[in-house]
C-alpha cells in the first residue's frame, strides 16, 4: 500500500477548473463502481467457495482496495494531497478506531487503509442505490441509534473485528469543535480491546455538511491523518456503572480531539 506523503500545493486557484472537472469525474466514478459492485462484482464473488465469514471478508477487502484506488485516483488527478502518520497501528483485532469527521470522504480513506475493517455507517446509505450493495455485502453496521446497533457493534469487537466509528454521527461544521455523542464510548465499553484515535485535518475545508461537491476550494485540498496512542477502555470501565463510565470515556475522547485539533491549528502555516 502506498502511503507516501503527497506534496502540498498552496498556489492561488491551483488549477481550479481542472480540479473541478477531476472532482466531477471522481464522483461519477464512485457511483459507477458502486453500481458495478452491486450488479456484477459481488454476484461473481458470491459464486466462490467459502462460508459467510469468508464472503464477508472478501467483500470488505474488495471495498477497501477499491477505496484506496479511488483515493489514489483523486491524488493523481490533482484533486487532493494526503499524508498518513501511524497507519501501521491500524487494523488490530478488537480495535476500535475513533475519528473526527471533517469531510465526506474520511470513511473512504480509513476503509482504504484498514481493508478488513467493519464500520458504523449512516442509515441513509443503506437505501442509496450506489452504496447499499457494498454496505450489505460487507455487513457494515447501520447507525440507527438503537440498542441493537450498540450491541451489534460491541459483538463485532468481541469477535476480534476492527471497527471504525465517527462519534459525531455527522460531519463537523467548519469552524466548530467536534461534538461527540456517547454511542461511540458505549460501544467501546461493550467490547473494544483497545481504542485508537485518528485525528483528521482537512485544509482548506471541503465536502462538509450540506456543501455540494462542485463548491471546491480555490486551492488543492490536503488531508492529514495522525494515528494517536492507544487508549485502554478497561481503565474507564472500572470507574463505575456503565452510564457513568461511558460519560467519562466520551468526555475524555472529546477533550482529546479538541486539544489535538487546536494544536494543529496553532502549528498550521499561514498563507
Verbal overview:
- With 271 residues, the protein is of the alpha/beta class.
- It contains 8 helices and 7 strands.
- The protein has helices spanning 16-45, 52-76, 106-113, 132-138, 147-158, 183-191, 233-237, 242-267, and strands at 80-85, 95-99, 118-122, 141-143, 163-165, 194-203, 221-227.
- Strands 1-7-6-2-5-3-4 form a 7-stranded mixed sheet, sandwiched between helices.
- Helix 2 crosses helix 3 (106-113) and helix 5 (147-158) runs parallel beside helix 6 (183-191).
- The mean pLDDT is 90.
Helix and strand content put the structural class at alpha/beta
Number of domains: 1
Question: Over the alpha carbons, how many angstroms does the gyration radius reach?
Answer: 19 Å
CATH topology: Glycerol-3-phosphate (1)-acyltransferase
Residue stretches low in confidence (pLDDT < 50, at least 5 long) are none
Main pleated sheet? 7 strands, mixed
Within the largest sheet, what's the order of strands? 1-7-6-2-5-3-4
CATH architecture: 3-Layer(aba) Sandwich
Oligomer: single chain
Strand tally, please? 7
The DSSP helix count reads 8
GO molecular function, one term: 1-acylglycerol-3-phosphate O-acyltransferase activity
Keywords: Acyltransferase, Membrane, Transferase, Transmembrane, Transmembrane helix
Pfam family, one: Acyltransferase
Protein name: Acyltransferase family protein
Amino acid at each position: 500500500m502506498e502511503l507516501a506523503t503527497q506534496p502540498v500545493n498552496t498556489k492561488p486557484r491551483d488549477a481550479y477548473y481542472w480540479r473541478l472537472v477531476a472532482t466531477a469525474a471522481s464522483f461519477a466514478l464512485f457511483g459507477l463502481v458502486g453500481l458495478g459492485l452491486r450488479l456484477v462484482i459481488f454476484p461473481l464473488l458470491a459464486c466462490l467457495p467459502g462460508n459467510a465469514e469468508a464472503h464477508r471478508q472478501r467483500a470488505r477487502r474488495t471495498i477497501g482496495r477499491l477505496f484506496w484506488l479511488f483515493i489514489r485516483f483523486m491524488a493523481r488527478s490533482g484533486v487532493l494531497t494526503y499524508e498518513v502518520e501511524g497507519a501501521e497501528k491500524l487494523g488490530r483485532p478488537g480495535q476500535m478506531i475513533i475519528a473526527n469527521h471533517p469531510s465526506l470522504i474520511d470513511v473512504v480513506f480509513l476503509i482504504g487503509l484498514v481493508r478488513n475493517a467493519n464500520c458504523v455507517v449512516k442509515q441513509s446509505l443503506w437505501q442509496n442505490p450506489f452504496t447499499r450493495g457494498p454496505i450489505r455485502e460487507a455487513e457494515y453496521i447501520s447507525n440507527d441509534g438503537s440498542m441493537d446497533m450498540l450491541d451489534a457493534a460491541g459483538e463485532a469487537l468481541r469477535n476480534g473485528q476492527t471497527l471504525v466509528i465517527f462519534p459525531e454521527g455527522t460531519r463537523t461544521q467548519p469552524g466548530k469543535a467536534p461534538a461527540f455523542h456517547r454511542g461511540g464510548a458505549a460501544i467501546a465499553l461493550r467490547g473494544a480491546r483497545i481504542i485508537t484515535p485518528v485525528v483528521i485535518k482537512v485544509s482548506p475545508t471541503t465536502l462538509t455538511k450540506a456543501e455540494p461537491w462542485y463548491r471546491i476550494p480555490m486551492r488543492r485540498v490536503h488531508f492529514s491523518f495522525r494515528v494517536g496512542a492507544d487508549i485502554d477502555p478497561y481503565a474507564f470501565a472500572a470507574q463505575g456503572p456503565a452510564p457513568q463510565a461511558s460519560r467519562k470515556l466520551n468526555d475524555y475522547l472529546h477533550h482529546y480531539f479538541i486539544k489535538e485539533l487546536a494544536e494543529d491549528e496553532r502549528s498550521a502555516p499561514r498563507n
